[in-house]
Structures are given as C-alpha cells and as structure tokens.
Design the sequence.
C-alpha cells in the first residue's frame, strides 16, 4: 500500500510528529499501513497497554499532519492498545481489572441498541434493517450503523450507493434511506482491503465511525454487529453506553447454543439483553400460505424463558424477505401491511415495551 502516492506523502508528513520516548511516528514500529481509498485515509497507531493517554496528542498531531495531504479525504487515525481487555473471550475468567474505558453515550442519540448473534447467517442484518424501519414506522427517529467491517451488508439491503459526504472534512454525513440515517464502512473500503481491518484497528475505526457521524437527534440507533463474540462486540460494549442488545437466533439447537454464548457475553459486559428474536421461525408456503414448522419452531422462545430475558417475537422464513433484501428495498418498506412486515412490526412493539422511554 505504500506504493500509493498519497500514502507515501502521508507517511512523509508523519515524520514531523514526535512520539513519547523519542523518534518520529513515521519510524514508529506501531504504525500500521496507511490505507487510502477514494474518500478516506486510515491508519492505526498501536501502543502498549497503558500508553493510550500519552499517545493522545500524537493521534491529534498525526490527524492534523495527514489532513493537509489527504486531498479532502476523511482521515481516520485509530489508537489501539496492544493487550486484550480483562476477561475477553474467556467465559470462566473473572474480571480482575476495570474496563479500560467507561462506556460513553453518543451525543444526540437517546438509545443505542446492538443487534447480535452468536452464529453467522441467522439474519441479523435482515432483522436490523427491518426492525429499524418498523421503529421508524411507529414514529421514531431511527439510524442504523453497520458494524460489520468485514462483510458490510447494510448498503446492499438499503440500496445505498456512492460514497458518504463530509462536513468540514471532519464529520461523515450519514446516508438517508427510506427515512433512516445509515452509515457503513462498506462504501469506503475496497473489497480487497477488508482484510486490513483486523482486531483492535477494526474496533477503533468503528468507534470513530459511530462518533464522527453527524447523526443529528435520534431516538434510537440500531447497530448491526458482525456474528460472534469477538473484538468488535467487546470493544463496543466497553466504550459505548448502549441501552442494550437484541439477540437473533434461528430455532435450531445449534444456533441456540451460540445465542446463549452471545447472551452471556453481553451479561458479562453489563450490557442489558433486551430480548431474543426467533428468525426463520417457520416456513410459509408461498402458494398455499400454509405454515410449516420445519426447524422445530419455538426454540428461541423456550431459550428466552430459560435465560429470563424477553422474547421479542418470531419472523417467518419467507422468500419475500430474502428477495426484497436483494432488491435493496426491505419487506417492511416494500409491503408494510404484509404478514412479513407485520412480524417485524410486532418485534418493534415488543422492543418498545422492553425499553419504556423509547415510546414517542
Ligand atoms: N426470515 C427470513 N426469510 C428468508 N430469508 C431470510 C430471512 N432472514 C434472513 N434471510 C436471508 O438469509 C441470508 C442471511 O441473512 P443476513 O445477512 O441478514 O444474516 P446475518 O446474520 O446478518 O449474516 P452475517 O452473520 O453474515 O452477518 C440472507 O440471504 C437473507 O436474505
Ligand atoms: Mg450481517
């Protein structure tokens, strides 16, 4: 990537930034590759645990130096500490130290709700988008953030094209789609660059995306998480004051085991679990309208009962849900009165019940 002329100029500019302990940032071993895309320039500075504070001014100086040569691109400078937070990913580990950051709210956003799952492909993104639209249909101001840096799907689901705009080269202006404010790193990252958004750098880029977007006033921001219980989930849980998390699962036993893991992760992080959604709950034959419980419907509801968390509702497996997603016009928007959209509307109502002051 250093063969990119702007990356090379940016690296040159970083020679003017001094680092604690002597030397300059361009020569500092913790400096990442410099990634240049048509609309963004990103780099990460990885420091030893505990050195984040000392490197704060370095980050500011690096941002300033690089902005001068970024030719209008949005500059993302991430500061990441090397070591994993206490207890991360180890179910049995007792938390020995306080989390490195206190969770902070995001200005203008009343409620941040993460949509998560233990297992991939269970329909988080589909549920995120339709839930966001269903909440909007109930009169709420809603935004959606795509936190899946490795496989962003919100742009496709909402038919978003093009690059995001900026205000004063500092703040992203979110996309607008069907009355939602939407932000994703997808439009800024070329497919072959996804691999560079690893571990702490990805978490840090995401935090910036969340905080440096001009969301305006929102009643709720839905965050569509990547699958699993990895760095992004942990870092978000520790740095963002979320109202809670919604877990999506299919009714099969195996998916439920993973859902349990996700529930436990959020409980450990003291992020309230607002409830469980059973997706692909039953199959409705498109020709006859007959219902088939092909996956042993009801597993997620039972699991919610066992875990003592609310059950938010069930969403059928239906071709219309997939087809409308593929067309970039989710079923809740395309046919709000239809049975599939109504399933999401019920989930939205249950969520509003689970978060009392979410009501308008
Ligand atoms: N209720 C449903 N009925 C029919 N198809 C569905 C339903 N829910 C999701 N799908 C389809 O299943 C596939 C996976 O869904 P989606 O991308 O929402 O899952 P995900 O959990 O976000 O996946 P990942 O873990 O990769 O982020 C998509 O093709 C989507 O259209
Ligand atoms: Mg997804």
Sequence:
């Amino acid at each position: 990537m250093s063969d990119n002329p702007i990356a090379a100029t940016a690296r040159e500019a970083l020679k003017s930034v001094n680092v604690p302990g002597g030397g300059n940032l361009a020569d500092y071993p913790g400096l990442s590759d410099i990634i240049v895309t048509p609309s963004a320039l990103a780099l990460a500075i990885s420091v030893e645990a505990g050195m984040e504070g000392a490197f704060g001014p370095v980050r500011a100086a690096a941002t300033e130096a690089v902005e001068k040569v970024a030719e209008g691109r949005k500059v993302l400078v991430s500061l990441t500490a090397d070591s994993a937070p206490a207890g991360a990913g180890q179910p049995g580990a007792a938390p020995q130290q306080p989390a490195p950051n206190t969770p902070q709210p995001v200005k203008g956003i009343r409620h941040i709700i993460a949509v998560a799952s233990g297992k991939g492909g269970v329909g988080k993104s589909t549920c995120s988008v339709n839930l966001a639209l269903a909440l909007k249909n109930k009169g709420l101001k809603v935004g959606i953030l795509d936190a899946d840096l490795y496989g962003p799907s919100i742009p496709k689901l909402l038919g978003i094209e093009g690059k995001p705009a900026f205000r004063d080269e500092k703040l992203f202006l979110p996309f607008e789609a069907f009355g939602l404010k939407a932000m994703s790193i997808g439009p800024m990252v070329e497919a072959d660059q996804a691999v560079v958004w690893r571990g702490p750098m990805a978490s840090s880029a995401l935090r910036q995306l969340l905080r440096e977007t001009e969301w305006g006033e929102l009643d709720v921001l839905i965050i569509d998480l990547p699958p699993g219980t990895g760095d992004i989930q942990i870092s978000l849980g520790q740095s963002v004051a979320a109202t809670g998390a919604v877990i999506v699962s299919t009714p099969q036993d195996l998916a439920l085991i993973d859902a349990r893991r996700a529930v436990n992760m959020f409980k450990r992080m003291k992020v309230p679990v607002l409830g469980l959604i059973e997706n692909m709950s039953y199959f409705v034959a498109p020709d006859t309208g007959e219902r088939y419980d092909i996956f042993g419907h009801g597993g997620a509801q039972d699991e919610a009962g066992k875990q003592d968390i609310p059950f938010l509702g069930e969403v059928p497996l239906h071709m219309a849900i997939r087809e409308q997603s593929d067309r970039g016009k989710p079923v809740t928007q395309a046919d709000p009165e239809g049975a599939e959209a109504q399933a999401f509307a019920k989930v939205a109502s249950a969520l509003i019940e689970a978060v009392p002051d979410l009501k308008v």
The radius of gyration is 21 Å. Confidence is low (pLDDT under 50) at residues 84-99.
